[in-house]
């Protein structure tokens, strides 16, 4: 971690590094590095007035999370005047997913009334991923959640089961998306997977049948009007649309 500041021509007295209320390092430029007060997990060789370096537990990411994540404060004090300024920042430790979530169980075509049974599985992460389903960009409530530890990380799973109705297929198709987020961690990309399904062909014909019948009825009425005009001695052509 780095602490940037402008002394405006003054001399530096100390820089204090804190995690929460715990002092990690009190750095004084007038002392030798090893004489500065510091915690055992502070790398004093790689820490100074502008940088704090912490030592972690090898191959134990969960222990590192407890050790590292939290709110850190850099407190700068000037020589003579002892004026003090500080700044704080939150630090998160995470194992990021290496790929988008896997979405299983989505068929290519569905009948009206058929069930959508989908399962979303995240890539291993720490903290465990939170999964959310979106049907046609609308968030869907889901209750069947599970988690499975894999090494230092965790795989999350979420299931969705629901009957599909005609309104779920605007334009004859629907899209189902599963999105993965890590609570408390700002990600530099969006982890999501989307699959498309269409309404089965016979359902689409049923949906189109009523408009075709209406069109035929209109054509019949126009034909009837034309024949009436012909009886009155007016030449007319009958065309059914």
Which helices and strands occur, and which strands form pairs?
Blueprint: E1 12-19, E2 22-27, E3 37-38, H1 61-68, E4 70-78, E5 84-91, E6 102-104, E7 109-110, E8 115-121, E9 130-135, E10 138-140, E11 144-150, E12 153-163, E13 173-181, E14 191-199, H2 201-231
Parallel strand pairs: 7-14
Antiparallel strand pairs: 1-2, 1-4, 2-3, 4-5, 6-8, 8-12, 9-10, 9-13, 11-12, 13-14
Description:
This is Ig-like domain-containing protein. Residues 1-92 form the Ig-like domain. Keywords: Disulfide bond. InterPro entries: CD80_C2-set, Ig-like_dom, Ig-like_dom_sf, Ig-like_fold. The protein has 241 residues and is of the alpha+beta class. The chain has two domains: 12-91, Immunoglobulin-like, CATH 2.60.40; 102-199, Immunoglobulin-like (Sandwich), CATH 2.60.40. 16% of the residues lie in helices and 37% in strands. The protein is built from two helices and 14 strands. The termini are far apart.
Short summary:
Residues 1-92 form the Ig-like domain. The chain is an alpha+beta fold and 241 residues long.
């Amino acid at each position: 971690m780095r602490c940037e500041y402008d002394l405006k021509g003054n001399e530096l007295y100390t820089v204090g590094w804190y995690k929460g209320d715990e002092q990690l390092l009190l750095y004084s430029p007038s002392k030798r590095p090893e004489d500065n007060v510091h915690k055992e997990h502070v790398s004093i060789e790689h820490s100074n007035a502008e940088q704090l370096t912490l030592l972690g537990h090898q191959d134990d990411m969960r222990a590192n999370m407890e050790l590292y994540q939290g709110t850190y404060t850099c407190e700068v004090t000037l020589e003579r005047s002892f004026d003090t300024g500080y700044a704080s920042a939150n630090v998160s430790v995470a194992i990021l997913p290496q790929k988008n979530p896997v979405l299983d169980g989505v068929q290519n075509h569905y009948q009206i009334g058929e069930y959508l049974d989908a399962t979303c599985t995240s890539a291993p992460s720490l903290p465990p991923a939170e999964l959310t389903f979106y049907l046609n960009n609308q968030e869907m409530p889901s209750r069947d959640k599970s988690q499975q530890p894999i090494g230092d990380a965790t795989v999350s799973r979420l299931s969705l089961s629901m009957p599909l109705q005609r309104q779920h297929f605007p334009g004859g198709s629907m899209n189902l998306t599963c999105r993965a987020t890590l609570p408390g961690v700002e990600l530099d990309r969006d982890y999501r997977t989307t699959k498309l399904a269409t309404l089965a062909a016979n359902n689409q014909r049923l949906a189109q049948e009523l408009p075709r019948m209406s069109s035929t009825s209109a054509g019949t009425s126009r034909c009837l009007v034309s024949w009436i005009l012909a009886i009155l001695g007016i030449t007319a052509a009958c065309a059914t649309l």
